[in-house]
Amino acid sequence: MGRRSSFTDPMMTNLALNRNEREQRKTVLKSYPIKIFVEPTSRCNLSCPMCGNRNQKRTADMDLPLFRKIERELFPHVAGVDFYLNGEPTIAENFPLMIQTAEKYLFMPRIFTNGNCLSEQTMEDLVRVGFSVTFSIDTVDPATYREMRPGGDMSRVTANIRRLAAIQRRIRNPRFHMRIAATLGMQNVAEGPKMVRFAKGLGIREVAILAMSGGSRSPVHLSCDPEKSVFYLKRAKRLADRLSVRISLPRLIGGIYLDEYNNWDSFRLPVDGHFHPDLEEATPFNGMCPFPWTQAAFRADGSVVPCSHTLKSMGDMRTASFREIWNSRGYRLLRSKSTYYRCLGSRCNLAFHSY
Ligand code: SF4
Question: Which stretches of 120-176 are assigned E, i.e. beta strand?
Fold first, then answer.
């Protein structure tokens, strides 16, 4: 199946204007964000001990009027929409409709999922529409997986990945893409290279390795034993190079910089023609965060947060227009900061380690 592959004029105009305003560090913007997160639900089917979402008291699914308002105001302008934030998107009541809505636009649609609750229809739709699907898996060992993700079943996840691959062999949508994201700490850093081999075995061409949050205050953060961490990360990179698996790694672990923290330029993947490079170009690494200009995230309850790493609300999409929130006093103050190692009252994991 050959999907439309070009970027629309409003999208390109917004990408150029946003870049210009970001470079000038304007605090009041005419441009829209270039990428947004839409949280279909803050509920999850699992209760993983390491997940900050686990103890959330109030959970909600995004209702249709709110989703349609976000669609009207943002979808024509953005180059990427990530249909997740906290929670498991595939269990949201309106998720099937969100997938169908994404089909009307040319932005790159993506989800992060634990992969345990994918129905046959959802998998068919994800491939047909051309989603990028990231499976969040932190170990390749089924018993450890059960401990890390209570309620989850590794064999169900791998069966779903194989099923998606089979649907893709039939539909052949070049925009459909699968990726594994592994969040590593000292307890599972040795899983990095295994994760690359596991991905390759399932026909997945991309692995993203992330440093768990918590920094030096955590007893299991990668920076607790930087030499050991870097040893396994470098081993994962070498294996990925050999197997032609795209990989990204944290850049800085406990004072050690990884010179080769990705192999993005080593080979091309079919999805590349559908993914505007500006979406991943700038990161918060070294404390210069671009996200107050380039991103906005819409929670299921209507609150707008500046990125996927904070729950600090900048406004309520139910009672205000996006433009009012985007140029509100809170956003203007956020864009006035000279450094982002601490942001909105917390230490930012991405500013220290990034990808
Ligand atoms: S919390 Fe981190 S990633 Fe988010 S806007 Fe602040 S510095 Fe950027």
Answer: 132-136
Instruction: Give the mutation target among 344, 347, 352 for probing the ligand 1 site: most ligand atoms within 8 A of CB.
Output: 344
Atom number, ligand 1, closest to the C-alpha of residue 287: 7
Task: Say yes or no: CB of residue 309 within 6 Å of ligand 1.
Answer: yes
Please name the residue ranges forming H helices in 172-302: 191-201, 226-243, 278-281, 291-294
Q: What is the pLDDT of residue 220?
A: 83
| pLDDT top residue among 78 and 147 | 78
Instruction: Please tell me the predicted confidence (pLDDT) of residue 7.
Output: 78
Q: How far is the CA of 351 from the centre of ligand 1 (A)?
A: 7
First-to-final CA distance of the chain: 32
pTM over 0.90: yes
Q: Report whether residue 293 contacts ligand 1, using a CB cutoff of 6 Å.
A: no
- What distance in angstroms lies between residue 340's CA and the mean position of ligand 1's atoms? 7
**pLDDT tens across 168-217, in order?**
999 999 999 999 999 999 988 999 999 999 999 999 999 999 988 766 66
What are all long-range contacts of 221-225, with beta carbons under 8 Å and residues at least 24 apart? 221/185, 221/186, 222/184, 222/185, 222/186, 222/189, 222/250, 222/253, 222/254, 222/353, 223/253, 223/254, 223/255, 224/186, 224/254, 225/186, 225/254
How many angstroms separate the alpha carbon of residue 290 from the centre of ligand 1? 8
